[in-house]
């Protein structure tokens, strides 16, 4: 009975104390010192106190919010004692930063890395950005900064600021964070009823044209900010050499389909390509040469539509993915120089392998596969110095008597997770694939 009375007393005291704490919490004091909400944090964080004198202060602070809006004053699972991760924290107050139906989202925004651009407390730049103007963009887009700084003809909106054309967080209108799709974005400044605009485009209707097929929106070394490599008919404004006339019901329709259109000027080139045993399949499609090449202008060598590695990777993603995963990478693939080994148009050999130059070997005479492979690899690698293993047409592969030993018997050309791009590792495991008598 005595124990029961003690227990009741303890519960009553506990309830009383709990009620006292709740009462203190409800009155907003939280046992903080006078003026603590404004001063206690800044008493230690003097750097933040100085920063709050900058021109642009975060609105949550400027409007009287205290540090605990974003930070937990005692403990947290997040850096800087943040109340939650940065993405959740920022989007709680800025839910409309990214359109719900966005077609493109800025990578730092999608990753919740808002503080890569914004200072969460204050800054002397608008929107409390870490840097002013284009400098905030160039801290990540360094290649674009270099390109823009070196071009001869600059696009004035770029100098004025990237956000003239791009939304910094996300765009519901277009990819690449563009505020509007092309050409709507372009004709906002370049009015189509301007006689000079019509003259430069030889009178062709441009209201539905994709301006960026020909023009570099960031600047160029060519007049009219055309891409640096311009197709000669395009440069001479001979549009009707390939397309129907400007007054035609179908002015942009090509006069012929596929490679036949290109053969009008490049007949010898096309005939040489078609004379080989294997032709690259895209060349035979309805698009023909324009599957890989831009017919108007391009920033890439050979007027390619994209850097070679990106372009080839669109059809051969498995090869590029293997290279990315591989610990031992083949340098031509790493450098995006696919044509170091492959002919982009046609070949007499499997995988469109280039025919290497061999002394006293006529270019029109087919070579056997081991000779082709070994001599192609030998243009970069002197295998005779790094291996004494016999290779060539007379060396039978012990795994299959119908094939012969050559570089590909041991090496995988697009990279592997093994040293020297070997199919197996360690080397003994590679060797005993053929020399089974030495297996242990």
Structural classification: mainly alpha
* SS strand fraction: 5-15%
| Order of strands across the main sheet | 1-3
Number of helices, where a helix is a run of at least 4 consecutive DSSP H or I residues: 20
Q: What is the distance, rounded to the nearest whole angstrom, between the alpha carbons of the first and last residues?
A: 81 Å
Principal-axis shape equals flat
Computed Rg: 34 Å
Helical amount among residues, as a percent range? 25-40%
Average pLDDT confidence is 88
| Number of beta-strand segments | 10
- The H-and-E topology, N to C, reads as HHHEHHEHEHHHEHHEHHHEEHHHEHHEEH
Mind summarizing the main beta sheet? Answer: 2 strands, antiparallel
Low-confidence stretches: 3-9, 11-27
Keywords:
440 residues, mainly alpha, two-stranded antiparallel ribbon, two-stranded antiparallel sheet, 32% helix, disordered N terminus
List the helices and strands and how they pair.
Blueprint: H1 2-26, H2 36-44, H3 46-51, E1 56-57, H4 59-62, H5 86-93, E2 104-105, H6 107-110, E3 122-123, H7 135-138, H8 142-150, H9 156-160, E4 170-171, H10 184-187, H11 195-200, E5 229-230, H12 232-235, H13 259-262, H14 267-274, E6 278-279, E7 297-298, H15 308-315, H16 317-325, H17 331-334, E8 346-347, H18 369-378, H19 383-386, E9 396-397, E10 400-404, H20 427-431
Antiparallel strand pairs: 1-3, 2-4, 5-7, 6-8, 9-10
Helix pairs in contact: 15-16
What would your notes on this structure say?
With 440 residues, the chain is mainly α. Among the domains are: 34-130, no CATH class; 318-438, no CATH class. It has helices at 2-26, 36-44, 46-51, 59-62, 86-93, 107-110, 135-138, 142-150, 156-160, 184-187, 195-200, 232-235, 259-262, 267-274, 308-315, 317-325, 331-334, 369-378, 383-386, 427-431; strands spanning 56-57, 104-105, 122-123, 170-171, 229-230, 278-279, 297-298, 346-347, 396-397, 400-404. Strands 1-3 form a two-stranded antiparallel ribbon. Helix 15 packs across helix 16. It starts with a helix and ends in a 9-residue tail after the last helix.
């Amino acid at each position: 009975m005595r124990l029961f009375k003690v227990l009741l007393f303890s519960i009553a005291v506990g309830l009383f104390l709990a009620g006292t704490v709740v009462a203190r919490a409800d009155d907003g004091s939280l046992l903080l010192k006078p003026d603590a909400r404004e001063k206690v944090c800044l008493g230690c964080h003097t750097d933040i106190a100085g920063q709050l004198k900058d021109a642009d202060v975060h609105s949550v602070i400027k409007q009287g919010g205290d540090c605990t809006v974003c930070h937990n004053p005692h403990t947290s699972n997040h850096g800087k004692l943040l109340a939650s991760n940065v993405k959740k924290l920022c989007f709680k107050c800025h839910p409309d930063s990214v359109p719900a139906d966005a077609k493109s989202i800025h990578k730092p925004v999608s990753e919740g890395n808002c503080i890569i651009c914004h200072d969460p407390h204050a800054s002397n730049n608008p929107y409390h950005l870490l840097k002013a103007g284009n400098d905030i963009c160039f801290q990540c887009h360094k290649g674009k900064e270099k390109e823009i700084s070196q071009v001869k003809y600059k696009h004035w909106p770029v100098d004025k600021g990237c956000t003239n054309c791009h939304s910094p967080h996300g765009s519901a209108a277009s990819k690449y964070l563009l505020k509007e799709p092309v050409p709507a974005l372009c004709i906002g400044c370049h009015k189509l009823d301007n006689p000079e605009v019509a003259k430069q485009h030889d009178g062709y209707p441009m209201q539905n044209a994709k301006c960026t097929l020909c023009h570099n929106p960031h600047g160029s070394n060519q007049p009219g900010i055309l891409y640096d490599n311009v197709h000669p008919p395009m440069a001479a404004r001979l549009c009707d050499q390939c397309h129907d006339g400007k007054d035609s019901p179908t002015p942009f329709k090509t006069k012929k389909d596929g490679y036949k259109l290109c053969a009008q000027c490049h007949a010898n080139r096309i005939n040489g390509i078609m004379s080989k045993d294997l032709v690259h399949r895209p060349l035979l499609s309805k698009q023909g040469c324009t599957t890989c090449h831009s017919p108007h202008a391009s920033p890439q060598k050979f007027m390619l539509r994209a850097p070679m590695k990106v372009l080839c990777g669109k059809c051969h993603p498995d090869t590029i993915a293997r290279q990315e995963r591989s610990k031992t990478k083949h340098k031509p693939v790493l450098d995006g120089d696919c044509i170091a080994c492959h002919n982009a148009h046609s070949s007499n050999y499997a995988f469109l392998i280039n025919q290497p130059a061999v002394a006293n070997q006529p270019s029109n005479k087919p070579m056997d596969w081991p000779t082709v492979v070994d001599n192609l690899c030998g243009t970069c690698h002197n295998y005779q110095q790094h291996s004494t293993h016999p290779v060539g047409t007379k060396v039978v592969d012990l795994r299959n008597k119908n094939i012969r030993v050559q570089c590909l018997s041991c090496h995988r050309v697009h990279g592997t997770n093994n040293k020297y791009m070997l199919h197996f590792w360690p080397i003994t495991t590679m060797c005993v694939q053929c020399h089974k008598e030495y297996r242990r």
